Amino acid sequence: METNLTSNKSLLDWLDEKVELLKPSKIVWIDGSQEQIEALRAEACSTGELIKLNEELLPDCYLHRTAVNDVARVEDRTLICSRSEKDAGPTNHWMDPEKAYKMLYDIAAGSYEGRTMYIIPYSMGPVGSPFSKIGIEITDSIYVVLNMCIMTRVGKKVLDVLGDSNDWVRGMHCKCDIDAENRWICQFPEDNTIISVNSGYGGNVLLGKKCFALRIASYLGKNEGWQAEHMLILGLEKPNGETKYICAAFPSACGKTNLAMLIPPEGYKKKGYKVWCVGDDIAWIRKGPDGRLYAINPENGFFGVAPGTNEKSNPNALESTKKGTIFTNVAHNLDNNTVWWEGLDKNPPTNAVDWKGNPWNGAESEEKGAHPNSRFTAPAVNCPCISSEFENPQGVPISAIVFGGRRAKLTPLVYQSKDWNHGVFVGSIMGSETTAAATGAVGVVRRDPMAMLPFCGYNMGDYWKHWIEIGETLDPDKAPKIFNVNWFRKDDEGNFLWPGFGDNLRVLDWIIDRCEGDVDAQETAIGYLPYAKDINLEGLDMTEADLDKILDVDKDAWEEELKGVDELYAKFGDTLPKELADELAKVKADLEK
Ligand code: SAT
Ligand code: MN
Questions:
Q1: N or C: which end of the chain has fewer CB within 10 A?
Q2: Are strands 62-64 and 326-328 parallel, antiparallel or unpaired?
Q3: Which helix or strand (DSSP H or E) is residue 173 part of?
Q4: Catalytic-labelled residue, pool 254, 383, 456, 515
């Protein structure tokens, strides 16, 4: 074994066991140094695991292709292994921990033979922040190491903070044979442990992300009085220089990265509005000494969806990918050794290789060049609008929490909840049309409470209760106000009724005005809706009458929708908080009025 980077006994004992099980030929500690990263990049290029891209156009950037059967999260193979099935709840897949360990150890045994075991010490959150948590991931994939070095804070400094503590999340990743039939992503919340086998794709193997920062962390948060949420964090700077922070939860591939890096419309820009990105996917939230809620982004990079990202839709994300980025499953332009994806521009390369590794002519081929869930892994520091508070160990104070989904019909552009518990209800009934971020059918409405359906590490009924209890500890004047938005309403011909992208700032502007008590709203059964005149349409080819079409509450359609909520709630039995049953009854009664 090469020299240990720590004398932490709980860690060294755990590693001994894993070496015995996995039988690596070599062991490498990841120290976080630039020299080590360079050496690993070179090694991965020599085996074809990575392709080095044009150094002039895309310095320090690389391309990786996963196996064709391994391109998204696998929700039916993602398990919560709590001792009691009830603690995993009705929306998670569960397996008894003893049985799961046995199954996983059988699959993993000897799988590092002839391979190297990389030991990655990483911090979720700024190293040493009171919000932060430490994890160790072992992996046999250089791709995973290099992605973790972008997405998290990695290396010796993390072990120095850990010291002798036993408080760290155990993560074991084994590529094995990338066998889809034996692919499992297992969380053991009571043991602070994650085991992932037979995958090499993002959310399944970058264990700091969904597995730790959401599934394990949500469970830790429940026990320790804080929250781990699937939310972006952005700062909206007003012309007077004041910045208000918003957390927003949307399911995967619904535009969190775009919203987090939004460029204000021309008129707003002229007045001096700016948007600052603190995070694009995950927020860890806790109460600060002044009684307000504060959030940090535990990640250090963006694992964003490539298709559709372009100079117009998200110039800040595009700029973030111009150096030090790893691209996964996009097309490779052989003419200039760069990358391309659908929606980047209107000039697909003609001499290229598609995401599956086959020759591809973008001018003629019917096939896509990039997979719809192809990704970029880009360092947060590259982002032109990264917030000055990004590294703030105390986080940023939250004024508003926004829920949202992808709904062609029903849900209005924006509405505000009546109070905290009603806001928890609004989050709990979120529904969204499915996307390519997970395997399975795309475009069907499914309930996705708080955008946490695939990411809650325990019983979602208890999770809702935790939300309600957090609210009870907050002074109503200091609690964030809770909203719901829908950028995706369509007319009967399938055209979007709202321009989206930068123009979403018009809605955020109303949201902040509501938080400050600066604007009136109309009370409806589902919550407070804006008056059309109060959403600034300056510079848009849209009238107040157009806007009214997406600021409606269709009683019959909502009654139908609430039947879906009845079905969801019925699954929870006695773990459904009474407060939510009460909120549902109230909305139903108000719709009748
Ligand atoms: O694949 S990830 O889980 O990392 C990204 C996502 O689905 O949001
Ligand atoms: Mn996500």
A1: C
A2: parallel
A3: strand 169-174
A4: 254
